[in-house]
Amino acid sequence: MINGRTVTFPTTVTDAVWSPNGDRLAFVDAQGNICVSRPDGTEIKVLTPAVSGVTRSGPTWEDGGGEVVYSRTGGDGIAKLYEVAGSGQDVDAHGNPTETQVFETSTDGGRDTAPSAVFDAAETWYSQVAGAGPRSVLVYQHGTASGAEVLITDRNIRNIQGFNKLVTGSQPALAPNGERTAYVDGNGQIDLVSLHGNGPSKPVRLTVGLSGVTHLAWSPDGSTLAFGTSTGVDSIPVPANAVSSSEQPVTQVSATPGVPTYQPLPATVVARISGQDPTALSIAQSQARFTTPKDFGSTMNGPAAFKVYIAPADPTQSEYDLAASLSTDIFSGPVLLTASGHGLDARVSAEIKRLLGTPNPDSFVETSAPQTITIVGGTDGVSAAAERQLRALGYPVVRDDPSNVIAGTPKPEHANGHNVVLADEHDPAAVAIGAAVARLNNAKLMFTDGSTLPPAVAAYLNADTVADPTPGEDYGHAQIDAVGNGATQAIGTWKQVPYTQVTTVTATSAEDLSGKAAALLSDGPLGIDLIRSGNLTDSLSALDQTVYTSDWPLIVDPTSGLAGTEASWLGAQGGSVAEIWVDGSADLPDSVVGQVTSSLGALSTNAVGNPVSSVVSWTPPQ
To answer: 341-376, pLDDT tens digit by residue?
Structure first.
């Protein structure tokens, strides 16, 4: 039943739950597999392998829709938490589905059921500065000899290490903002506990006299809890600031027993970003993606910029400098463009002040610290005069000229562990996609000269490896991704070091490369950045958000639109993609954007016929 209307699926549906963007459902089918589908029951995709004697239950979406976590009971009768990609991309070498136990729960002894997860890309200043990224919290029911308890784990391992007991109880459900958890207490009633940095608050009871309560579900705004009973589905209001127990009125939602789940609204949003010149466009991208902090270092309600990159607005070799620079920094921040050979554009100066606020010397620990301005490239791009004006603003300023990385000699500060992405410096599409892959996977972006692997790059790939690694020692370059035909041919000439995995992506066009790389190397993106073919600068400047929101750039032709590989990949991302960014709106017509939303299967209306998709146009003040 969806809003009182019967929807028929070709299989039984158990424990159905909406994806965070409201475009997909995850559920358990008749064979006990975890599946996803469109809300009308079409395009069912089986995510888990068929294993005799295994049962699964309680799926919940995690990573903003990129993963599905569920309880899996094996032949030994012990329930454990497992996860699988919501897109169906977790497969073995033969294309068969695979599943993996949730690492953080692997040492709790099992008997784990009823998982509930929340992902929030816009986290606090401290957690992002600490390199932890978005909030990704998981609660679940854990069985013990003395009864059920609720455990909690922060999957980005910040202030909650591993798993911790939250309360004694069962059937936990995280609020949409991740700050409260509802659960069923030992008396069968619904209680509420708030989560704080110093630990949970004292539980507050919300119901009295209920029986058979199960499957708690929050409304998208966090104001209501629905739950199943033996006689139907009921709901209660949840006070915004509940500090003491208070019985809440119960409303019957349905006289038919079932598992409630709310459709999140709105669904996929299309945001067109435009500007009258490259500088204006870069500012529009910044204003659309990053909030204005009240006090730098305070908790934000949205993603905050911790650094600002300044690059020349003229299309030059600096675009490659920008790719290398962006792929090496864990801190999120926009790319602002200013004209080469001139002083700092006044519009850029104003935007920097908006983003970083009042200079805070306490944050100036090092040049990679928050509130740092990074100039990309040499003085032939962003001039020495512009640099002096930037320094006069009062923030730390560092000039990052990675041109020697282009030539194949990596600077030490550009090395991110042992993951490397290779791209042909003569292939703009490969450079843009390679930068995205490097940034998402915390890898080092390096360049080939067409199909030639520069000696210095080969030397770097051969460095710091061991012939027979042992636990705790350096395993060499764990992953090398060669993006594009040139890089693929170049890496083919390298004598591969043992224990190193190489993935190659070849294609017939920039668009085809975009789709193939997404299928192989992306992981449940929350947003899609649409970039016109050949527009490398727009593509690179759109990477400012990829670290924390997992956006993925798709290169599209303004006339023919999506490549087949892109459309196919998008069809598997309907559970996670909530935003479509169109950078440079004059370049891409509505028909191309329509291809994207159609491929995603994004809903045009919700269950009661109200529109849920919207279009936002963003142009900065002139």
So the answer is: 889 999 999 999 998 888 876 654 444 456 788 887
Give a three-class secondary structure readout of 505-569: ECCCCHHHHHHHHHHHHCCCCCEEEEEECCCHHHHHHHHHHHHHHCCEEEEEECCCECCHHHHHH
Say if CB 124 and CB 154 are below 8 A apart: no
**CA angle 255–258–263, rounded 5-degree value:** 105
Per-residue pLDDT tens over the stretch 118-153: 876 554 333 333 344 456 788 999 999 899 999 988
What radius of gyration, in Å, describes the C-alpha atoms of the chain?
A: 25
**Position 490, amino acid:** A
Q: Give residue limits of the domains in the chain.
A: 14-254
Alpha-carbon span 249 to 190, nearest angstrom = 12
Backbone angles phi, psi at 569, to 5 degrees: -65, -45
N-term to C-term CA, the chain: 50
DSSP codes joined into one string, 350-367 = HHHHHHH-S--GGG-SST
Model pTM score: 0.69
Q: Count of CB atoms within 10 A of residue 549's CB?
A: 20
Q: Work out the burial of residue 451: count CB atoms within 10 Å of its CB; fewer than 13 is exposed, 13-18 middle, 19 or more buried.
A: middle
We find that the CATH architecture of domain 14-254 is 6 Propeller (2.120)
Q: Return the number of other C-beta atoms located less than 10 Å from residue 161's C-beta.
A: 10
The span from the CA of 119 to the CA of 194, in Å, is 17
E-assigned strands of 74-230?
79-85, 100-101, 112-120, 135-144, 147-154, 164-168, 170-174, 180-184, 190-196, 199-200, 204-205, 214-218, 224-229
Tokens 């000229």 belong to residue: 401
Most confident option among 68-82, 234-248, 451-465, 498-512: 68-82
Per-residue confidence (pLDDT) for residue 236, from 0 to 100? 94
**In what helix (H) or strand (E) does residue 56 lie, and over which residues does it extend?**
strand 55-62
State whether residue 275 is helix, strand or coil.
coil
Are the beta carbons of 527 and 503 closer than 8 angstroms?
Answer: no
Angle formed at CA 595 by CA 589 and CA 596, multiple of 5 degrees: 100
